[in-house]
Fold:
Amino acid sequence: MIHLFEINGDRLAFDPQSGALHLVDETAYRVLEAYNQQDGIRPDPTTLDGLTAAYGDEVHACADEVDALIQNRLLFIPPEPMPPLSALYPDGPRIKSMCLHVAHDCNLRCRYCFAGTGDFGTGSRVRMDQETGKKAVEFLIAASGDRTNQDIDFFGGEPLLHWPVVVALTEYCELRAGETGKHIRLTITTNATLLDDDKTRFINAHMKNCVLSMDGCPDTHDRMRPDAGGKGSYETVSERIRSFIRE
Structure:
């Protein structure tokens, strides 16, 4: 199937397999719609005659041109079969990075949250235990093969809700990096509401990146990122981020 669409008064036909983009007139556009309905096969004469009644004698000639484009692999290219994973990675896929969802829970209720305000739509707010986190780190090390550099992002939900496990897993990553010769770069993604001086010092000492969330001016932020009680979070977040930056 090809994608037919109109933009700025132009009619376009895009074939995703070949990458060909065609600028067409209305007659060709309607003919291609008929081809789409037949999965790229020439429509029957009755269908083309019906289009001829509406768009003129050019319809059959247009269909001939479409057939030529199909023959030259410029339209309705059949998708190439994907090679099996074993062919791409004969020794198994090598994994470079991982998001550790240490908390499927959050203390904010952001209106646009893709994670269902922390529980990812499950209705169950849970947190990762330390042993599961260690197994995940071991999986990444084993699956990285001969790669030296790996990345782990402490994620959620809100990972600072489960700070003791973040600290324990950070220390475990540093231990295993020293034992295996890997370079494990750590990131934490947080809404900043629970940042304090101790957490800031730890993050600066042990992590490569800290991703902080803020939504513009106070009114916008408070409207989009209220806490669990419905109160805006701008004042808290802005204060914590400023303190974090000063460190």
